[in-house]
Amino acid sequence: NDADTGTNGEIDYTLHQASETVQRLLRIDRATGTIYVKGLVDREETSFLKFFVVARDRGPNSKISKVLVTIIVKDQNDNAPAIEIRGIGLVIHQDSVANISEDMPIGTPVALVQVSDRDEGENAVVTCVVAGDVPFQLRPASESANDRKRKYFLQTTTLLDYERIKDYRIEIVAVDSGNPALSSTNSLKVQVTDMNDNTPTFSPALVEVDFPEGNQPGDRVLDVVATDADSGINAEMIYSIIEPESTRLFEVDANSGEIRVKNTLDREEREHYKFHVAAADKGLPSKTGTATVVINVLDRNDNEPKFMLNGYSFSVIENMLPLNPVGVVTVTDADKGENSRVTLFVDPDNGKFLIQNDTRTILSSISFDREKESTYSFRLKAVDGGEPPRSSYVGVTINVLDENDNAPYVTKPSNSSYTYLTPVTPPETRVEVVEAEDIDAGPNAELYYSITGGNPYGLFQISPTSGEITLAQAFSGKHNGLHRLVVRVSDRGKPPRHTTALVHVFVNETKSNVSLIEALVGHSLYTPLDRDIAGDPNYAYSQQNNIMYGSLAGAAVVILVIVAVVVIRHHLQKDTKSGYQAGKKESKDLYAPKQGPKNGKGKKSKKPKAPKPTKPLEEDEEASLQKGLKFNLINDVNDSPRIHLPLNYPPGSPDLGRHYRSNSPLPSIQLQPQSPSASKKHQAVQDLPATNTFVGTGDNNSTGSDQYSDYSYKANPPKYNNKQVGDYANMTTYPRENIYWTKQVW
């Protein structure tokens, strides 16, 4: 205030003796004296300001007045707590990292922590904690604590384990009590230093690997890796194979653990290998861990199938039914799996044999006949299932064992041949040799000869082994004539088989009458074997009469036939329309036996009287006997004398039957199967070889050997049709007595 008035009472205010801080932070209004803050005031820098304010009036010789002004700066919580971390004791801190050994005990101090706050009062009261789940805590360093500065020990709460946790990040949080509260954090990295307290370990402890055989030496097999939870030199390891015997085949790199094979492995020699690998660290003291290594040698198709034998030989009996087992082979393959799966093939596959691969059994597709083929040879091919496949071969021989399935057969003499002897032939004279063969083998082909008939006087004897027939005793008068020896040729099979041969011996002073001898031999061929023909004079005489009567009767019949044909031709030629002409064929054989109509109408044709049948031959021999002889006895309807000639004539001899057929204008008269005379003919059949077949020829017509071949009567095919018969078919009577048209036949 200034008591003056006017200009003298106007006052100006200024700061006086103000410090630089005051001048920087404050200003005063010159007119009003109001002090303003012109800068940021920080209590932590300046807690109070002292200066003078001068008041000066504006009058002449102005007067002044001054006053001391003190400004106290009040605290606001504008400062966060400060955290300082320092090393302590043996724990060395470097670059905010503390190193501590893992073997330190619980409660070991790691660092000294100091917390401060620049504020004052409540704003400077700080709370400090360790954040997170770490094995560390803060412990006050002293009992008396300054509110503005506090010290703590950072210490462990549990044992540290380098292998579990190698380092920790410790975060310390400090919070003041201001409103609002301010906080700050600081961190420390704690590294746990390693001690060699861990053994090297393999994971897994059992290592199994597949390795193919046939490798090259030095090939890598596998790598074994061990780990050590320690660090540094404590974690550095050296690898080695424990078993000395395994080191001959395998080696391991001491630093890397790589296992290599020294030699070539062969699965067929050894399929599995097992050994142990050790890993030792370099710590003090050193610790060692082990692992088990198993090497499975994989198979390669490096082996061919192998047969148990170098060759197989089997024996089978002949006539064995197809698809029966012949033999079994054994084949192996040293490989494994598909490489050892063997399939067998028949090579060459001609369809005669097949192989069962499941049983390795050889089967036959044929029935064996030793006489056709006694030995079969082929190969078996064995192919494995590898890729590429391997194969091998083995020879197989099949020997067909003989079975007595063939009877002997006589090659000499012919059944129709004969040997001439004079009555004065001395004993021991060689008469004939029966030669026979048997296509079987072994005992089945060993022949035994015996005389079973025709030797009632014991005149002849035969060698059982050679078949030589010799005269046993001298002839007498009653022995003159034909002798028929029935010789049985038997083999020594089980059961034995046999055949029968006829040996004819003609005993007489001379043999000038060859026709008589041949007739006797021919008759012998259809005489039952149980009847001895042994030179009986009466038997020979009766046979001569029969032959003579048969020859005369045959000649008479031929003449009658020729006369009848001439007469009929003469009458038939009168018919100009369709009468018979020479060379024309008729629909029916004019001389074939007629059969009356079924209804009984018309005149009955006169049936010729059938001859009294002779007693049929009893077959006391077996099937071989039937195959050994074959002849036919044909009785004429009028019982004319029989003439017996060989059916198979020598080359160049005339065939009388063919001669008659070719020169006669009429068809050959032939017995039809339905003919009454034919049906009642006596037939005595004994099987003979084809060259020894004789047929009786006493019928009215002359026939060749082909007429009765195969021992059956064959009807000739129709020779004439209705058109060739002509108008005779339209006539009911023929202009001649006792001739009628019946069933298209006059």
Features:
single chain, 746 residues, mainly beta, five-stranded mixed β-sheet, four-stranded antiparallel β-sheet, rod-shaped, calcium, transmembrane helix, repeat, cell membrane
Give a written overview of the molecule:
This protein is mainly β and 746 residues long. Helix content is 10%, strand content 33%. It has seven helices and 44 strands. The strands form 14 sheets. Strands 7-8-14-13-10 form a five-stranded mixed beta sheet, with no helix packed on it. A hairpin with a 6-residue loop joins strand 13 and strand 14. Helix 2 packs across helix 3. The chain is rod-shaped. About 21% of the residues have low confidence. It holds the Pfam family Protocadherin. This is Protocadherin-1. It is found in: Cell membrane.
The biggest beta sheet reads:
5 strands, mixed
The termini sit apart by: 201 Å
Q: Could you say which structural class the secondary elements and strand pairing correspond to?
A: mainly beta
Number of strands: 44
**Helix content class:** 10-25%
InterPro entries: Cadherin-like_dom, Cadherin-like_sf, Cadherin_CS, Protocadherin, Protocadherin/Cadherin-CA
Biased composition (Basic residues): 600-612
Protein name: Protocadherin-1
Keywords: Calcium, Cell membrane, Glycoprotein, Membrane, Repeat, Signal, Transmembrane, Transmembrane helix
List the helices and strands and how they pair.
Layout: E1 11-16, H1 20-25, E2 26-28, E3 35-37, E4 48-57, E5 64-72, E6 82-87, E7 92-93, E8 97-101, E9 109-116, E10 126-131, E11 136-140, E12 149-156, E13 167-176, E14 183-193, E15 201-202, E16 206-212, E17 220-223, E18 226-227, E19 237-241, E20 250-252, E21 258-261, E22 272-281, E23 288-298, E24 306-307, E25 311-317, E26 325-328, E27 331-332, E28 342-347, E29 353-356, E30 361-364, E31 375-384, E32 391-401, E33 409-412, E34 418-421, E35 430-433, E36 435-437, E37 447-453, E38 460-462, E39 468-471, E40 481-491, E41 498-507, H2 514-524, H3 537-572, H4 623-628, E42 631-632, E43 644-646, H5 656-663, H6 676-679, E44 694-696, H7 722-725
Parallel strand pairs: 8-14, 16-23, 25-32, 34-41, 42-44
Antiparallel strand pairs: 1-4, 2-3, 4-5, 6-9, 7-8, 9-12, 10-13, 11-12, 13-14, 15-18, 17-21, 19-22, 20-21, 22-23, 24-27, 26-30, 28-31, 29-30, 31-32, 33-36, 35-39, 37-40, 38-39, 40-41, 43-44
Organism: Xenoophorus captivus
Biased composition (Basic and acidic residues): 575-591
Biased composition (Basic residues): 600-612
